[in-house]
Amino acid sequence: AGMRELSPGLKMECDILDALEALGYTGPLLEEKALNKAAENGLSSPEFFELCIWLGSQIKSLCHMEESITSTDGDKDIESFQLEISGFLREMACPYSSLISGDIKGRLREKEDCLKLLLFLSTELQALKILHSKKIKGCRSEKHDEIYQEVQAICSALGLPNSSSCDIPPLLTNVEQKIKDILSKVQNNHVGKSLLTKPLDSDQVERLEKINDALRSEYECRRRMLMKRLDVTVQSFGWSDRAKVKTDDIARIYQPKRYALSPKSTITLAHLLAAREDLSKIIRTSSGSTRENTVCAINKVCFFFLGCDKRTWEFTDLSKVILELYSLCPLCFDPKDSEIS
Protein backbone atom coordinates (compact mmCIF):
# COMPACT_ATOMS: atom_id res chain seq x y z
CA ALA A 1 0.00 0.00 0.00
CA GLY A 2 1.21 3.46 -0.84
CA MET A 3 1.94 6.18 1.71
CA ARG A 4 -1.00 8.29 2.80
CA GLU A 5 -0.86 11.71 1.19
CA LEU A 6 -0.61 14.70 3.49
CA SER A 7 -3.47 17.16 3.57
CA PRO A 8 -2.71 20.54 1.93
CA GLY A 9 -2.64 22.30 5.31
CA LEU A 10 -0.32 19.74 6.90
CA LYS A 11 1.95 19.73 3.86
CA MET A 12 2.18 23.52 4.06
CA GLU A 13 3.17 23.30 7.72
CA CYS A 14 5.87 20.73 6.95
CA ASP A 15 7.25 22.91 4.15
CA ILE A 16 7.35 25.92 6.48
CA LEU A 17 9.15 23.97 9.21
CA ASP A 18 11.69 22.61 6.72
CA ALA A 19 12.29 26.09 5.32
CA LEU A 20 12.67 27.71 8.74
CA GLU A 21 15.15 25.07 9.84
CA ALA A 22 17.17 25.51 6.63
CA LEU A 23 17.18 29.28 7.11
CA GLY A 24 18.69 29.01 10.58
CA TYR A 25 15.61 30.16 12.49
CA THR A 26 15.96 29.32 16.19
CA GLY A 27 12.70 30.74 17.56
CA PRO A 28 9.83 28.93 19.31
CA LEU A 29 7.88 28.04 16.14
CA LEU A 30 10.17 25.22 15.00
CA GLU A 31 7.74 22.72 16.56
CA GLU A 32 4.61 21.69 14.67
CA LYS A 33 2.20 22.29 17.55
CA ALA A 34 3.59 25.74 18.29
CA LEU A 35 3.42 26.69 14.60
CA ASN A 36 -0.20 25.48 14.37
CA LYS A 37 -1.21 27.43 17.45
CA ALA A 38 0.51 30.61 16.21
CA ALA A 39 -1.17 30.31 12.79
CA GLU A 40 -4.57 29.78 14.41
CA ASN A 41 -4.14 32.86 16.62
CA GLY A 42 -2.73 34.88 13.73
CA LEU A 43 -2.10 38.52 14.55
CA SER A 44 -2.89 37.98 18.21
CA SER A 45 0.14 35.69 18.54
CA PRO A 46 3.40 37.45 19.55
CA GLU A 47 5.41 34.54 18.14
CA PHE A 48 3.70 34.94 14.76
CA PHE A 49 4.52 38.66 14.82
CA GLU A 50 8.17 38.02 15.65
CA LEU A 51 8.57 35.38 12.95
CA CYS A 52 7.09 37.68 10.28
CA ILE A 53 9.38 40.50 11.39
CA TRP A 54 12.42 38.19 11.36
CA LEU A 55 11.65 36.89 7.86
CA GLY A 56 10.97 40.42 6.60
CA SER A 57 14.25 41.79 7.99
CA GLN A 58 16.21 38.91 6.47
CA ILE A 59 14.62 39.50 3.08
CA LYS A 60 15.21 43.25 3.22
CA SER A 61 18.90 42.70 4.02
CA LEU A 62 19.36 40.71 0.79
CA CYS A 63 17.50 42.91 -1.67
CA HIS A 64 16.78 46.58 -2.09
CA MET A 65 13.21 47.07 -0.92
CA GLU A 66 11.36 50.23 -0.02
CA GLU A 67 8.79 48.50 2.19
CA SER A 68 9.65 46.80 5.48
CA ILE A 69 8.00 44.91 8.35
CA THR A 70 8.68 46.55 11.70
CA SER A 71 7.90 45.58 15.27
CA THR A 72 4.60 46.50 16.91
CA ASP A 73 3.66 47.88 20.31
CA GLY A 74 0.37 46.47 21.45
CA ASP A 75 -2.98 45.88 19.77
CA LYS A 76 -3.26 49.48 18.62
CA ASP A 77 -0.53 48.83 16.01
CA ILE A 78 -2.03 45.67 14.52
CA GLU A 79 -3.65 47.65 11.70
CA SER A 80 -0.32 49.36 10.94
CA PHE A 81 1.33 45.95 10.89
CA GLN A 82 -1.28 44.71 8.40
CA LEU A 83 -0.59 47.71 6.18
CA GLU A 84 3.14 47.03 6.30
CA ILE A 85 2.61 43.36 5.46
CA SER A 86 0.36 44.30 2.54
CA GLY A 87 2.86 46.79 1.11
CA PHE A 88 5.74 44.36 1.63
CA LEU A 89 3.91 41.55 -0.18
CA ARG A 90 2.86 43.79 -3.06
CA GLU A 91 6.45 44.90 -3.61
CA MET A 92 7.52 41.24 -3.65
CA ALA A 93 4.76 40.38 -6.17
CA CYS A 94 3.09 37.87 -3.85
CA PRO A 95 0.94 35.43 -5.88
CA TYR A 96 -1.61 34.85 -3.09
CA SER A 97 -4.50 37.21 -3.86
CA SER A 98 -6.08 36.62 -0.44
CA LEU A 99 -3.04 38.27 1.18
CA ILE A 100 -2.92 41.42 -0.97
CA SER A 101 -6.56 42.14 -1.85
CA GLY A 102 -9.89 42.52 -0.06
CA ASP A 103 -10.54 44.00 3.37
CA ILE A 104 -7.13 44.55 4.93
CA LYS A 105 -8.41 43.72 8.42
CA GLY A 106 -9.64 40.30 7.32
CA ARG A 107 -6.64 39.08 5.33
CA LEU A 108 -4.91 37.21 8.17
CA ARG A 109 -7.90 35.96 10.14
CA GLU A 110 -7.80 32.44 8.75
CA LYS A 111 -5.13 29.91 9.72
CA GLU A 112 -4.53 28.98 6.07
CA ASP A 113 -3.79 32.60 5.14
CA CYS A 114 -1.30 32.89 7.99
CA LEU A 115 0.42 29.71 6.82
CA LYS A 116 0.49 31.03 3.25
CA LEU A 117 2.17 34.20 4.49
CA LEU A 118 4.86 32.27 6.37
CA LEU A 119 5.39 29.88 3.47
CA PHE A 120 5.76 32.69 0.96
CA LEU A 121 8.19 34.69 3.10
CA SER A 122 10.30 31.68 4.05
CA THR A 123 10.57 30.29 0.50
CA GLU A 124 11.34 33.75 -0.93
CA LEU A 125 14.09 34.14 1.66
CA GLN A 126 15.49 30.73 0.67
CA ALA A 127 15.57 31.77 -2.99
CA LEU A 128 17.28 35.07 -2.17
CA LYS A 129 19.93 33.30 -0.08
CA ILE A 130 20.64 30.88 -2.94
CA LEU A 131 21.01 33.72 -5.44
CA HIS A 132 23.21 35.67 -3.03
CA SER A 133 25.40 32.62 -2.45
CA LYS A 134 25.81 32.05 -6.19
CA LYS A 135 26.72 35.69 -6.69
CA ILE A 136 29.42 35.49 -4.00
CA LYS A 137 30.81 32.28 -5.46
CA GLY A 138 30.87 33.89 -8.91
CA CYS A 139 32.78 36.91 -7.56
CA ARG A 140 35.22 34.64 -5.78
CA SER A 141 35.72 32.58 -8.92
CA GLU A 142 36.40 35.70 -11.00
CA LYS A 143 38.80 36.99 -8.36
CA HIS A 144 40.57 33.62 -8.25
CA ASP A 145 40.94 33.61 -12.04
CA GLU A 146 42.34 37.14 -11.98
CA ILE A 147 44.87 36.27 -9.26
CA TYR A 148 45.81 33.04 -11.05
CA GLN A 149 46.53 34.93 -14.27
CA GLU A 150 48.72 37.39 -12.38
CA VAL A 151 50.66 34.56 -10.72
CA GLN A 152 51.07 32.82 -14.08
CA ALA A 153 52.44 36.07 -15.54
CA ILE A 154 54.98 36.23 -12.69
CA CYS A 155 55.99 32.61 -13.34
CA SER A 156 56.42 33.35 -17.03
CA ALA A 157 58.57 36.43 -16.28
CA LEU A 158 60.76 34.38 -13.96
CA GLY A 159 61.13 31.58 -16.50
CA LEU A 160 59.27 29.03 -14.40
CA PRO A 161 57.53 26.17 -16.25
CA ASN A 162 53.78 26.46 -16.75
CA SER A 163 51.75 24.58 -14.19
CA SER A 164 48.51 22.75 -14.98
CA SER A 165 47.37 23.15 -11.38
CA CYS A 166 44.99 25.99 -10.48
CA ASP A 167 46.12 25.89 -6.85
CA ILE A 168 47.79 29.24 -6.17
CA PRO A 169 49.78 28.62 -2.93
CA PRO A 170 52.20 26.08 -4.51
CA LEU A 171 52.80 28.50 -7.40
CA LEU A 172 53.61 31.29 -4.95
CA THR A 173 56.02 28.97 -3.13
CA ASN A 174 57.86 28.33 -6.42
CA VAL A 175 57.91 32.07 -7.15
CA GLU A 176 59.35 32.84 -3.71
CA GLN A 177 62.09 30.23 -4.09
CA LYS A 178 62.98 31.46 -7.58
CA ILE A 179 63.21 35.09 -6.41
CA LYS A 180 65.45 34.08 -3.49
CA ASP A 181 67.74 32.23 -5.92
CA ILE A 182 67.94 35.29 -8.20
CA LEU A 183 68.57 37.73 -5.35
CA SER A 184 71.36 35.56 -3.99
CA LYS A 185 73.30 36.14 -7.22
CA VAL A 186 73.16 39.96 -7.20
CA GLN A 187 74.40 42.69 -4.87
CA ASN A 188 72.44 43.45 -1.72
CA ASN A 189 71.41 46.92 -2.91
CA HIS A 190 70.47 45.77 -6.42
CA VAL A 191 66.73 45.95 -5.86
CA GLY A 192 66.80 48.93 -3.52
CA LYS A 193 64.86 49.65 -0.37
CA SER A 194 61.09 49.49 -0.34
CA LEU A 195 59.26 52.81 -0.50
CA LEU A 196 56.74 51.43 2.00
CA THR A 197 58.64 51.00 5.24
CA LYS A 198 55.86 49.66 7.47
CA PRO A 199 53.80 46.47 7.10
CA LEU A 200 50.09 46.82 6.37
CA ASP A 201 47.33 45.11 8.31
CA SER A 202 44.08 43.94 6.70
CA ASP A 203 42.18 47.12 7.61
CA GLN A 204 44.85 49.35 6.10
CA VAL A 205 44.92 47.24 2.93
CA GLU A 206 41.14 47.54 2.59
CA ARG A 207 41.28 51.31 3.11
CA LEU A 208 44.09 51.70 0.58
CA GLU A 209 42.15 49.69 -1.98
CA LYS A 210 39.13 51.96 -1.52
CA ILE A 211 41.34 55.03 -1.91
CA ASN A 212 42.89 53.55 -5.04
CA ASP A 213 39.46 52.76 -6.50
CA ALA A 214 38.38 56.37 -5.94
CA LEU A 215 41.57 57.73 -7.53
CA ARG A 216 41.31 55.36 -10.50
CA SER A 217 37.74 56.45 -11.10
CA GLU A 218 38.75 60.12 -11.03
CA TYR A 219 41.79 59.53 -13.24
CA GLU A 220 39.69 57.59 -15.74
CA CYS A 221 37.38 60.59 -16.06
CA ARG A 222 40.34 62.89 -16.66
CA ARG A 223 41.94 60.52 -19.13
CA ARG A 224 38.76 60.30 -21.13
CA MET A 225 38.70 64.09 -21.27
CA LEU A 226 42.30 64.16 -22.54
CA MET A 227 41.57 61.49 -25.14
CA LYS A 228 38.57 63.43 -26.36
CA ARG A 229 40.75 66.54 -26.67
CA LEU A 230 43.29 64.50 -28.60
CA ASP A 231 40.56 63.34 -30.99
CA VAL A 232 39.30 66.88 -31.49
CA THR A 233 42.79 68.27 -32.09
CA VAL A 234 43.75 65.61 -34.61
CA GLN A 235 40.40 66.11 -36.32
CA SER A 236 41.15 69.84 -36.57
CA PHE A 237 44.32 69.02 -38.52
CA GLY A 238 42.11 67.85 -41.35
CA TRP A 239 40.50 71.24 -41.80
CA SER A 240 43.30 72.62 -43.98
CA ASP A 241 43.15 72.08 -47.73
CA ARG A 242 46.49 70.28 -47.77
CA ALA A 243 45.31 67.81 -45.12
CA LYS A 244 42.00 66.94 -46.78
CA VAL A 245 43.79 64.90 -49.45
CA LYS A 246 45.72 63.07 -46.72
CA THR A 247 42.70 61.93 -44.69
CA ASP A 248 43.38 58.21 -45.26
CA ASP A 249 47.06 58.60 -44.39
CA ILE A 250 46.21 60.43 -41.16
CA ALA A 251 43.68 57.75 -40.20
CA ARG A 252 46.16 54.96 -40.99
CA ILE A 253 48.78 56.54 -38.72
CA TYR A 254 46.54 57.86 -35.98
CA GLN A 255 43.93 55.17 -35.36
CA PRO A 256 46.26 52.33 -34.28
CA LYS A 257 48.01 54.68 -31.87
CA ARG A 258 44.72 56.06 -30.62
CA TYR A 259 43.17 52.68 -29.91
CA ALA A 260 46.26 51.68 -27.94
CA LEU A 261 45.51 54.43 -25.39
CA SER A 262 43.40 53.10 -22.53
CA PRO A 263 41.29 55.36 -20.31
CA LYS A 264 41.59 52.97 -17.37
CA SER A 265 44.45 53.08 -14.91
CA THR A 266 46.33 49.84 -14.25
CA ILE A 267 47.78 50.97 -10.92
CA THR A 268 46.99 48.59 -8.07
CA LEU A 269 48.08 48.07 -4.49
CA ALA A 270 50.75 45.70 -5.81
CA HIS A 271 52.54 48.67 -7.38
CA LEU A 272 52.74 50.32 -3.97
CA LEU A 273 54.15 47.18 -2.37
CA ALA A 274 56.71 46.81 -5.16
CA ALA A 275 57.72 50.50 -5.27
CA ARG A 276 61.34 51.35 -4.44
CA GLU A 277 62.73 54.48 -2.82
CA ASP A 278 63.84 55.97 -6.14
CA LEU A 279 60.18 56.51 -7.10
CA SER A 280 59.82 59.15 -4.37
CA LYS A 281 62.06 61.56 -6.24
CA ILE A 282 60.04 64.48 -7.61
CA ILE A 283 61.12 65.91 -10.97
CA ARG A 284 59.41 69.05 -12.18
CA THR A 285 57.97 68.70 -15.67
CA SER A 286 59.11 72.24 -16.47
CA SER A 287 62.72 71.77 -15.40
CA GLY A 288 65.48 72.43 -17.91
CA SER A 289 66.64 68.82 -18.15
CA THR A 290 63.10 67.59 -18.76
CA ARG A 291 62.36 70.28 -21.36
CA GLU A 292 65.40 69.24 -23.36
CA ASN A 293 63.67 65.93 -24.02
CA THR A 294 60.17 67.29 -24.55
CA VAL A 295 60.66 70.28 -26.84
CA CYS A 296 59.59 69.56 -30.43
CA ALA A 297 58.41 71.22 -33.64
CA ILE A 298 54.78 71.08 -32.57
CA ASN A 299 55.41 71.91 -28.94
CA LYS A 300 52.43 74.23 -28.68
CA VAL A 301 50.08 71.46 -29.76
CA CYS A 302 51.63 69.04 -27.26
CA PHE A 303 51.57 71.67 -24.53
CA PHE A 304 47.79 71.81 -24.90
CA PHE A 305 47.61 68.24 -23.60
CA LEU A 306 50.40 68.58 -21.08
CA GLY A 307 48.76 71.62 -19.56
CA CYS A 308 45.44 69.86 -19.07
CA ASP A 309 46.60 67.67 -16.22
CA LYS A 310 50.26 66.77 -15.72
CA ARG A 311 49.45 64.40 -12.87
CA THR A 312 47.22 61.88 -14.56
CA TRP A 313 48.70 61.25 -17.98
CA GLU A 314 52.25 61.05 -19.28
CA PHE A 315 52.17 63.66 -22.00
CA THR A 316 54.58 61.57 -24.07
CA ASP A 317 51.79 59.07 -24.76
CA LEU A 318 49.87 61.84 -26.48
CA SER A 319 52.71 63.88 -27.97
CA LYS A 320 54.24 60.82 -29.60
CA VAL A 321 51.00 60.23 -31.49
CA ILE A 322 50.90 63.77 -32.83
CA LEU A 323 54.66 63.89 -33.40
CA GLU A 324 54.54 60.76 -35.50
CA LEU A 325 51.67 62.20 -37.51
CA TYR A 326 53.74 65.33 -38.04
CA SER A 327 56.90 63.49 -38.99
CA LEU A 328 55.19 61.16 -41.45
CA CYS A 329 52.83 63.72 -42.98
CA PRO A 330 54.50 67.11 -42.50
CA LEU A 331 52.53 68.69 -45.30
CA CYS A 332 49.28 67.97 -43.50
CA PHE A 333 50.12 70.26 -40.60
CA ASP A 334 50.65 73.97 -40.67
CA PRO A 335 52.01 75.23 -37.33
CA LYS A 336 50.05 78.43 -37.83
CA ASP A 337 46.84 76.43 -38.23
CA SER A 338 47.40 74.19 -35.23
CA GLU A 339 48.69 76.59 -32.61
CA ILE A 340 46.64 76.63 -29.48
CA SER A 341 47.04 79.58 -27.20
TrEMBL record:
What protein family does this chain belong to?
Belongs to the FAM98 family.
Identify the InterPro entries for this entry: FAM98
What protein name does the entry list?
Answer: Family with sequence similarity 98 member B
Q: Which GO terms describe its cellular component?
A: tRNA-splicing ligase complex
Q: Which organism is it from?
A: Strix occidentalis caurina
